[in-house]
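Consider the subject:
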Amino acid sequence: MTISAPAPAFDIKSASLDLLALVLRSTDPAQLEPALQSRFSHLSANGQSEAFVLGLEALPSLEGVDLGSLLPLMGRHGIKVVVLRHPDPAQATLASRYGLGFTTGGGRSSGPAQETAAATPVAPTQEPATSLIIDRPVRAGQQIYAKGGDLVILAVVSAGAEVIADGNIHVYGPLRGRALAGARGNTSARIFTQAMEAELVSVAGVYRTIEQALPDSIRHKPTQIYLENERLVMKALHE
């Protein structure tokens, strides 16, 4: 009689999880709360959440940083922090205290209860750029992300919708929602649209909300958005 070994309860396999990082520049709730509401209202309004790395490296000091208050604040806006990032490996203790993973930003991360030594930077590999083409309208509440390349949309991006790309964003129709190009820090990325009516535009994390009427030179007209000297420029495509 042959006795079969019991099936394993789990398998361990390699996985690649690419998360966007939310890099804090202020921990003042009076400044942070309205900024989160403006940027992530589509998540909280629909009861959704999205996983993020929380970057602390841009803060002038970690003195007074209260994750016990910050994490619930972000959670109310649909931001689920899963990893803490800081170049000082000693901050792994802080991450562990709140059940978070930790990374120094050098390519390695640790689990919630572990500390990590300083990671050795790994030279990035060059991957061929790809484009994600969407031939239908992007409706309010929808989010589309083109990982590792450009996003091309052949229809309208409605108000309340969000389109994100690591590369450029091309909208061959009205752009009425939010558009975030260069999502992983590509400062050369651009946004192009046939009709500029956006709620928010961003390139490599530099963003602008459109709270006032756009100038006649670009309102409802073909427009490109790009960075110049770390400032966001919105310019008519045909002048």
Observations:
- The two ends are 84 Å apart (CA to CA).
- The longest helix spans residues 29-45.
- Residues 163 and 235 are 20 Å apart (CA to CA).
- The longest strand covers residues 79-85.
